């Protein structure tokens, strides 16, 4: 409905009231007629459009009531109905909040201009002017405007996560094809365009989004579903009253009290209230249809990278050749990586500083973009980067090759570090499952999601591993944007399907899903634009809260509608029997409206949730404490692997490990058991909510003591007997495994108890 109609109806209705008060009845009637006619005209046109599509609309009864009131001379009644109808439409428009804007965010990501080589010089031209064969310059930090080949300056390092969902950078050598929409992380390079911007990969994704939005069947609103039987029933009662009494006013009175204001007003008020309550929790639901569809959702398809996982490369292990300690390898590598802007370099520097390592200033730097760095650190020639590049300089020993294979099998990457011409260490990096993901998965199932699936561009084996860990019902792997669209189509065959993602590659699938949900806190603008719901807080558990809010708002809307329609039904019987005039019926109807609207406003209240037991700062501090203990876990594994049969143990290393367990791990676990967890338990429901953690603390402390005793019993020059060796190996591996599990459980607990932030 045009925005100007509501203020027009309000002004004309009030003006008519003023005229009536001063005795100008004829002028008042004219003004009320003028207030009704534009609304009635718009309503008739809209109803005809719906009828052509074979749809019943609640608008039909309101139109008949307005028209009948005008024909029988009850202009005030007609104006009151028009006012209520226009108000309901305005609420619907407010709820939508201009949700279906043009895909400006999609188009804005592509640069508007680019440097093109013309007559031996670089000239700035519009991207639309680029044609196949043009030579372009792609600067550091720029988005590739078109598909092309790396012409010079390679190898290049590109962030392709927006297209493929893969969080780790990808290297491309000279002559290799690269796609538009990806981000240049390294130095500038020259690109030979393979096609124009309109024909490139990124433009194809834009078209996919548009096609998906066009092809998605419209969601049938709750009000229209009720109207399917309400309209014929109302017409039957009104016709019967007229037929039996011979008085058309009785039919009009029936139409007036049957005017579906509970549908026109109460349902939108409840829906808008639910949208408002969700917005206060950082959940932006773009319109009422999206909220109702969200409430019906039973199947959820989740993107992996950035949604189920962190989307960031994290250091998970350090393996060395035995000549250097893990801390030394990390310190030398991070010292060198300080000069790089690469995301993996930044992650390594952050970890080294968090572990308190003193970084040196490198000299004699040589940068191989897309491959790695080399330079002098504390008098040592250090090279760090891609395994193939470092291996070509320093060779690839068997242990490093095995470490690389482990990293790839686990879906991660490896950074090789060579010192003075020999591979000294391998840093394993991985995109890890978010701490709040397992809790969010449980909350989603508790909220009524019956089938949880994952869609990713990763390899099938990596995807299957994550799916098994999270207990998902299905896994779709190796998907392109088109593949994700097809996965959504398959899921929709089983019922109302929700899709969650955060990258440009997710945008077409989000547009096609019954409800697309974007992780908008750090996701791509394209996904937020194509989605129906945007989670502005970077927490997946907010999706379960969004489901709860939408279902409660819809339940309140249905309750208000049914109560209002029941009261209207009683009034219809009274009007058909002649006990209500049209004007009295309009007044009574307004009383019913007020009652159901007040009930609908209950949807403004937030869903009850436990108060946070931790501040965001406390959660970050506790998670940091676990990261500080990561070197201890690495040392446990290294010492266990070093205890091979027939080999003298590394007594110095074992003694150092025993000291670290006593000085770092044991006090940490004792502090959690004696102070932190009792304090948390006092702010949590239940008599002993952290009992299972207490049992784990006892097992960790027991293993630490057993390990300390066995290490203390080893003679400095003796080879331990086989029984002692096997026992110590079992204990070291057991402690490492328990600590990994325990830290993950505690991180999940802390994420669940944390407040905003």
Automatic annotation (TrEMBL):
One of its GO terms (cellular component) is plasma membrane. The chain crosses the membrane at residues 30-48, 55-72, 226-245, 251-278, 561-580. Residues 110-210 form the P-type ATPase A domain. GO terms for molecular function: ATP binding; ATP hydrolysis activity; cadmium ion transmembrane transporter activity; metal ion binding; P-type zinc transporter activity. InterPro entries: ATPase_P-typ_cyto_dom_N, ATPase_P-typ_P_site, ATPase_P-typ_TM_dom_sf, ATPase_P-typ_transduc_dom_A_sf, ATPase_P-type_domA, Cation_Transport_ATPase_IB, HAD-like_sf, HAD_sf. Belongs to the cation transport ATPase (P-type) (TC 3.A.3) family. Type IB subfamily. This is P-type Zn(2+) transporter. It comes from Fluviicoccus keumensis.
